[in-house]
Amino acid sequence: MVHNFSAGPCILPQSVFKEASEALINFDDLGLSIIEISHRSANFVAVMEEARSLVKELLHVPDEYDVLFLQGGASLGFLTVAYNMIRENKKAAYINTGAWAKKAAKEFGQLGETDIIASSEDRNYSYIPKSIETGDDHDFLHFTSNNTIAGTQFKQFPNVSAPMVCDMSSDIFSRKVNVSDFDVIYAGAQKNMGPAGTAVYIFKKDILGQSSVKIPTMLDLNTHAQKDSMFNTPPVFAVYVSMLNLRWLKQNGGIEWIESVNQQKADLLYNEIDNNPLFTGTTDVEDRSNMNATFLLTEEALTDTFNSMWADANISGIKGHRSVGGYRASMYNALPIESVQVLVDVMKELAQKHG
After folding, report:
1. How far, rounded to the nearest angstrom, does the alpha carbon of residue 111 sit from its chain's CA centroid?
2. pTM of the entire structure?
3. Is there a catalytic annotation at residue 130?
4. pLDDT (tens digit per residue) in 47-64
5. Beta-bridge partners for 288
6. Which is catalytic among the residues 66, 171, 183, 191?
7. Does 100 score more than 90 pLDDT?
8. Least CB-packed of 18, 23, 70, 149 within 10 Å?
9. 191 is catalytic
């Protein structure tokens, strides 16, 4: 067994892989692959509708919100939400907590004034800014809920007067969220939901048609809302696998269940980081991500030894991002706690031999 701590694309349940692989050959007993049937067929329309319905059910999405599965991932979402949320002020507040948050802010700069109202760049994004406030001239506040590279996560969301927009790409479906606090939530699929190639948008229906600029057809959420995510050929396989994964989540107990499991995984690894003299975390303790744990060796001379040990234990994907260094263990929903225990055992063994 390979223990997959990759930061993305994500680990998915083996049962999802099995069903998805079968559907590549014969979907719904049609004798056809899921990727060759018409996206207008009743069979695939049912997939799209179930995927959207599961999002609403799992996250308790209020009736006044819509859910869409679109293409482009969160990177296209940076511009999509900018176009759909810009108002007469043409000024938006952004919180800069990492590379992706910074890229999102840059995209709004093509349309209006980007106001970075808080940033953790001064300490290499190792913490979450507190005491967030917006002004009357801000069309909306945008922030990234979880920062995969730096390993930080908003434990409490801002409470501000401006409409809130959140990129939840790397922690959506990992914990409970009060959707009604947000005007728009969007997320690439490839962390906790499915394969790369699609993104989910959850938004208040009354934001549509309020933009102060002309929106390109494919970036207008109203375009896709009117066609129930089927304005153009959707990313069929990515939506299908996302649907299977959301089914798996529901069958196992939903968000309440997975939030508890994710907390157990995070507690197990962070406890070892804090108590093992050969390791140290890279972020402020109160802002540590339950999805992406970042840490360093305190003895660089042991780097090759540790790397060999975790590789021999069939651990994959824990090298840290170049901007942080060290190690990053991504513990997305489908990663079993047994895999975290294997990593912890390797860390303990290193300390026993060289501590």
Report:
1. 25
2. 0.97
3. no
4. 999 999 999 999 999 999
5. 152
6. 191
7. yes
8. 18
9. yes
Beta bridge partners of 115: 93
* Average pLDDT in the chain: 97
Confidence category of residue 323, pLDDT binned at 50, 70, 90: confident
Q: What is the DSSP letter of 321?
A: P
Structure tokens at 214: 């002309």
State which amino acid sits at residue 282: T
Counting DSSP H helices and E strands in the chain, the numbers are 9, 14
Q: Catalytic: which of 167, 183, 220, 287?
A: 167
Dump pLDDT digits (tens) for 144-174.
Answer: 999 999 999 999 999 999 999 999 999 999 9
Alpha helices, H only, the chain: 14-25, 42-58, 73-85, 99-108, 221-225, 236-251, 254-275, 303-312, 337-354
Catalytic residue check, 167: yes
- Cα–Cα separations (whole angstroms), residue 83 to 80, 88, 187, 207: 5, 12, 17, 11
Task: Please report, for residues 306, 309, 319, 321, the alpha-carbon distance to residue 354 in angstroms, rounded to integers and kept in the order given.
Answer: 10, 13, 21, 25
pLDDT at residue 176 in the model: 98
Question: Exposed (0-12), middle (13-18) or buried (19+): which is 216, by Cβ within 10 Å?
Answer: exposed
Rg (CA), the chain: 21
pLDDT band at 13 (very low <50, low <70, confident <90, very high): very high
- 197's tokens: 């190639």
| Residue of 100, 139, 287, 310 with catalytic role | 100
Six token digits for residue 140: 């909306």
Checking if the pLDDT of 355 tops 80, the result is no
C-alpha–C-alpha distance, residues 236 and 25, integer Å: 14
Vertex 338: Cα angle to 18 and 280 (nearest 5): 125
How far is the CA of 26 from the CAs of 12, 17, 234, in angstroms?
Answer: 21, 14, 20
* Domains annotated on the chain, with CATH: 14-251 (3.40.640.10), 254-354 (3.90.1150.10)
Q: What is the mean pLDDT of residues 280-307?
A: 98
DSSP string across 242-291 = HHHHHHHHHHTTHHHHHHHHHHHHHHHHHHHHHH-TTEEESS-GGGB-SS
